[in-house]
Amino acid sequence: MTKAIIASTSTIHGSTYLEYLLPTLKEHYYNCSEIVFIPFARPSGISHEEYTLIVKKAFSQINIQVKGLHEFDDYSNAIKNAQGIFTGGGNTFLLVSQLYKNNLIELLRTTILAGTPYLGTSAGSNICGLTMSTTNDMPIVYPPSFKTLGIIPFNINPHYLDPDPTSTHKGETRETRIKEFHKFNTIPVVGLREGSWLTVDDKTITLNGNLDARIFECNKIPYEVNTGQDLSDLN
Amino acid sequence: MTKAIIASTSTIHGSTYLEYLLPTLKEHYYNCSEIVFIPFARPSGISHEEYTLIVKKAFSQINIQVKGLHEFDDYSNAIKNAQGIFTGGGNTFLLVSQLYKNNLIELLRTTILAGTPYLGTSAGSNICGLTMSTTNDMPIVYPPSFKTLGIIPFNINPHYLDPDPTSTHKGETRETRIKEFHKFNTIPVVGLREGSWLTVDDKTITLNGNLDARIFECNKIPYEVNTGQDLSDLN
Fold this sequence. Notes:
By secondary structure, chain A is of the alpha/beta class. Chain A has helices spanning 22-28, 48-60, 75-81, 92-101, 105-113, 123-126, 174-181, and strands spanning 3-7, 34-38, 65-68, 85-87, 118-121, 155-157, 189-191, 196-201, 204-209, 213-216, 223-225. The first copy, chain A, contains seven helices and eleven strands. In chain A, strand 8 and strand 9 (204-209) form a beta hairpin. The longest helix of chain A has 13 residues, at 48-60. The relative contact order of chain A is 0.16. The model of chain A has no long low-confidence stretch (mean pLDDT 96). At the A-B interface, helix 7 of A face helix 7 of B. Chains A, B: Its EC number is 3.4.13.21.
């Protein structure tokens, strides 16, 4: 029953917040007059209120109301009764800590699997994987676990960046980091470039957007998949 | 009594492993014929053996023998009896997990504070701070805590990268990430550019290398410090 959009980023270069996704979101949330926004990831540390305002403005363009989860007295009821849910990007460690603190991990999982339309961008997409262990974020707070929702049977690396062959920087490339992950984990990883998203429709997972994605499987050479391709069998 | 070198990176562009630091290390380890190398961070997932070979080769140029910690039967005794210690870079989550698993955090701290000459590069420098929360690494394993050695009264961000004004990528800049850290933590952060290092000599902490460093303090505008400057009062 799952209906989820798992996007690499909220914003692509040269456009406004969620602009590139609005036509898709209009369809995705076609029977929602209001959605619940989870602002816990707080990009750049902005407040829940500030973050929710940005989201309200974007969704007003497709005539959908937005209410921040922090505006509800009972978070669990808000999730259970939501017509649609959106978790925005920011810091994944903070997001996951807050979800655990408020006992929302299992509830969010079952609600999404039961069919409440879900959108995640960046950190909000990271949590759809089996673990948050392929986030790019800085560990600014210590969550009780790295285990996440498992809406999909693999992990996401959002904002996936190809190695820059001209770089003189000695920090690890994204590919090196994911290779290190696979020394200790067998979970496949989808490197989602900015502007790409996964559409989950019941048991079918499809790559969408203009770009190809890079797939990392344990003990395999990484490979590209074309947009439009079915990823349902990746696990 | 502390004698530590806390370096941004092991390797700078266009030179071999540790090459730029060798003259400094010759002085630093002047009374050591052999040092103990902690290979737990395993860059790119290489084995302890492979990693130690790279380090042996570098140190052979200044006539210092290297023994990997994994070669000892008793890790605690190896640390206690070391003439000098070096922790190499790689994945900080893995390094910290292994240090906790082997009960070495407190012992390493007291050994370094008692005067055993220490070198850290990258992940091995991250652990000298109060927490590992300003690492750039991917959380490939879940450590029991983010608390680290606290050899210095602040945190390190190694491989510090200035924002690229021409970038179209929407992932967070390093400065944005550290700003998020300071929404939840008051610990100052030293952004150490590649080729820079801190020298800790008893209570005195000095910035060395060719480059300036960028300092991030909670609720302050980030600022630059020149190489050669004393950072002992940053806390």
